[in-house]
């Protein structure tokens, strides 16, 4: 089951300046920053709240580190703004994806890839989701979670 909004992904040009905006304006204090080479991004997760399923809900800020990053392409076309939403599951993300694929929605990865803080992630094609790029997330087990950056 999908049990939480895991995060909302926002594309930005300057990660540090955008993190500072979110800290100053909204008072978020728990910030984790990491680079995901495979996805071509430097990202910040700003925790908004704990979710009832043991996971968390965050704002994710995404800055491209390469011109061929999906985020670079998005910024060039649309400018800064909401890039995707991510639903979290307390179960197996591949099982969630298989169930959704069975309804005719394109799943972008054959098997889950590495997401923020050691999570397992996959994406659903925005054209099959009413224009919304949608991510599915299985958080890392507590002991495997990457520590705060
Ligand atoms: C593209 N489209 C979008 C969109 N990106 N629609 C809504 N939201 C978005 N973010 C639309 C375009 O406007 C276009 O529509 C059509 O989809 C094809 O776009 P394209 O860019 O020409 O095509 P692709 O295939 O090059 O790229 C789109 C696709 C790609 C979604 C498949 O961006 C992708 O594989 N994304 C998944 C990975 C990702 O986004 N990684 C970055 C976040 P028209 O009408 O013009 O045809 S990494 C992350 O988030 C990780 C680290 C984490 O959470 O832990």
Automatic annotation (TrEMBL):
Family in the record: Belongs to the methylmalonyl-CoA epimerase family.
Entry superkingdom: Bacteria
PROSITE patterns, A to Z: VOC (PS51819)
EC number assigned by the record: 5.1.99.1
Cross-referenced CDD domains: MMCE (cd07249)
Gene: mce
Protein name: Methylmalonyl-CoA epimerase
PANTHER family the record matches: METHYLMALONYL-COA EPIMERASE (PTHR43048), METHYLMALONYL-COA EPIMERASE, MITOCHONDRIAL (PTHR43048:SF3)
Species, as recorded: Actinomadura craniellae
Keywords: Isomerase, Metal-binding
């Amino acid at each position: 089951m999908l049990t939480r909004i895991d995060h909302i992904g926002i594309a930005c040009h300057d990660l540090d300046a955008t993190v500072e905006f979110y800290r100053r304006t909204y008072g978020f204090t728990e910030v984790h920053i990491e680079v995901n080479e495979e996805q071509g991004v430097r990202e910040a997760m700003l925790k908004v709240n704990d979710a009832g399923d043991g996971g968390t809900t965050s704002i994710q800020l995404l800055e491209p580190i390469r011109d061929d990053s999906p985020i670079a392409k998005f910024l060039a076309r649309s400018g800064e703004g909401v890039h995707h939403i991510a639903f979290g599951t307390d179960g197996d993300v591949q099982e969630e994806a298989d169930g959704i694929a069975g309804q005719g929605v394109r799943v972008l990865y054959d098997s889950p890839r590495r997401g923020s803080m050691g999570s397992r992630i996959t994406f659903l094609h925005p054209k099959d989701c009413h224009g919304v790029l949608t991510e599915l997330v299985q958080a890392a087990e507590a002991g495997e979670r990457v520590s705060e950056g």
